[in-house]
Amino acid sequence: MVLLKNTADSTENQAAVSDSDSVRALIRVEYRLRKEIVSLFYLEGPPSGLVERILSLRSLYASEAYIGSHEMATLRYLTLLLMSWAPSELGGHVATLSLEQQSHSVVAWALQACEVASRQDWPKFLSLYTQADFLSAVAMERAATYARHGIMRQVVESCRLRHVRRMSLAKLKSMVAVRDTAFFKHYGLRVVADEDAVELTGENLPAALYQGKEMLVAKFKLLGLSDEALCFGLADPTCRSGPCVHRPPVEDSDEDEYVQVAEGIPHLSHKQRISLHNEIDLLHMHGHRQASPTRSWSRLAPA
């Protein structure tokens, strides 16, 4: 009887260790995804190998046996990153989402942004971008840059056709979600500061996109969180603390419940999180070069 009890205890301990490892793996993937987004905020040039890493993290996340309380935020980030950096992969990704996931407000918002971008409704897209949380906005930034470019081309060409030489600066700022006057100079407009207006200068529209992160810097300052806090999900939309749950198998039964709470899954202590942070940091930095998220945001602030 004692031997049987010891064997049962050993089996339970092994299961607990396995559960703990699975939870750590889930947190590791979510952490790495957020760190990719934070790195995009600091990166000053085009990222190297980003698409491959996004696709890899998406596959890893889908293969995990557990779902954390940040599942919907993670799916939102993946959706927006694919929209901006790998639109050809977006359809396949959306097809893997369940109806419950697609209808959740956090994910549905990202799907709406993708739909708006696909029909090039740039004013609506930038309106969503302005409302977005920080990490979602960073994931959308590349598409937002194209949106601003598209709007400015339409505005300038329309003004030339209608022989309009001056327009409201405040209205333009609202349309393109930019306050930095350098943006408007880039597109051949002269700012008339005293009259809150801009004038056409007669210059040709530039082919190059304007790379500005003013809106992101403002969102980052408003959060008041460290990079580490962002990477651990403290700024995730509708972030709630809670236990991880078993991820349902693909061949799900007809049961009404989407997931069942897994009992006995240990929560990570502060010491374990610090250890996991160090491990993830080494994994992330090994094998590809990227800007360090410890750099100050002030370097990106407009002059």
Question: Your description of this structure?
Answer:
The protein is mainly alpha-helical and 303 residues long. It has a single domain, classed as Serine Threonine Protein Phosphatase 5, Tetratricopeptide repeat (Alpha Horseshoe). It has helices at residues 2-42, 50-63, 71-85, 90-95, 99-103, 105-118, 122-131, 134-161, 169-176, 181-186, 214-223, 227-231, 270-285, and strands spanning 66-67, 166-168, 189-192, 197-200, 245-246. The strands form two sheets. A three-stranded antiparallel sheet has the order 2-4-3. A two-stranded antiparallel ribbon has the order 1-5. A hairpin with a 4-residue loop joins strand 3 and strand 4 (197-200). Helix 1 runs antiparallel to helix 2 (50-63). The termini are far apart.
Quickly describe the structure:
The protein has 303 residues and is mainly alpha-helical.
Key phrases:
5 strands; 3-stranded antiparallel sheet; Serine Threonine Protein Phosphatase 5, Tetratricopeptide repeat; mainly alpha; single chain; elongated; 303 residues; two-stranded antiparallel ribbon; disordered C terminus
